[in-house]
């Protein structure tokens, strides 16, 4: 289709002009209007065919006999309780007679099944510094609780702030434990906490999602001790830079 025909077709749809004098542009206009104005599965009087064949709802096969008049079919059914819906137009127009009440029940059941499906667990991260104030920490832990309530796991990352002295290891452990204590009614640590290069990571999951009791990870940490598992870097570039200071 030429660019000229496309422009004319678009303008014709907006202005509802009669078909173009040019045959090729008239065909282009008709196709474009059909594409954007016709629903995929039109219903009742919106079905654009005079004769249709009926598909049996139970067998999925076409009912025997010649195609029937759409007008007569619509007259013969109670449109307050039944929908005549086009299933396909190729190789011939086929329709189904659908019960409105059954459709509403099926739609409701589908929505309930979608809600009942387990949503994938996401990994979230809450960041704070060693010098975080009480109110700021409460605000950040509130966000952590909200993510846990959604079924997500949350890493609470505590890192040094640039150009500020780090607390000693004993003080770090004290503040780590303060975070854990503040979350004990809503979360458990699902992996051992880590402390490396001044960055602590506490890994929480929702308390009620634990199928079995999880061992407490409240052993004080020592930055100089070796760990058998690799400690992941904080995801934030700012925290990575702070840890390197």
From TrEMBL:
One of its GO terms (biological process) is ribosome disassembly. The keyword DNA damage does not apply. Residues 212-245 are annotated as: Disordered. GO terms for cellular component: mitochondrion. Keywords: Initiation factor, Protein biosynthesis. It comes from the Eukaryota. One of its GO terms (molecular function) is translation initiation factor activity. InterPro entries: T_IF-3_C_sf (IPR036788), Translation_initiation_fac_3 (IPR001288). Belongs to the IF-3 family. PANTHER family: TRANSLATION INITIATION FACTOR IF-3, TRANSLATION INITIATION FACTOR IF-3, MITOCHONDRIAL. This is Translation initiation factor 3 N-terminal domain-containing protein. The lineage of its organism: Eukaryota, Fungi, Dikarya, Basidiomycota, Agaricomycotina.
């Amino acid at each position: 289709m030429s660019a000229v025909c496309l422009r004319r077709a678009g303008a014709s749809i907006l202005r509802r002009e009669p078909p173009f004098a040019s045959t090729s542009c008239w065909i282009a206009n008709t196709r474009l209007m059909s594409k954007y104005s016709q629903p995929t599965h039109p219903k009742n009087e919106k079905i654009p065919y005079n004769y249709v064949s009926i598909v049996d709802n139970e067998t999925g096969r076409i009912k025997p006999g010649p195609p029937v008049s759409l007008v007569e079919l619509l007259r013969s059914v109670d449109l307050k309780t039944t929908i005549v819906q086009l299933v396909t137009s190729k190789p011939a127009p086929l329709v189904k007679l659908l019960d409105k009440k059954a459709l509403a029940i099926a739609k409701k059941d589908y929505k309930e099944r979608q809600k009942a499906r387990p949503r994938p667990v996401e990994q979230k991260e809450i960041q704070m510094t060693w010098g975080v104030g009480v109110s700021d920490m409460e605000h950040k832990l509130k966000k952590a609780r909200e993510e846990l309530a959604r079924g997500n796991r949350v890493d609470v990352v505590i890192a040094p702030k640039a150009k500020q002295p780090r607390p000693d290891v004993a003080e770090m452990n004290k503040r780590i434990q303060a975070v854990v204590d503040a979350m004990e009614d809503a979360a458990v640590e699902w992996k051992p906490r880590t402390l490396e290069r001044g960055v602590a990571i506490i890994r929480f999951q929702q308390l009620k999602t634990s199928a079995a009791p999880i061992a407490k990870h409240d052993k004080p940490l020592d930055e100089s001790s070796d760990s058998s598992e690799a400690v992941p870097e904080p995801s934030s570039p700012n925290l990575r830079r702070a840890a390197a200071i």
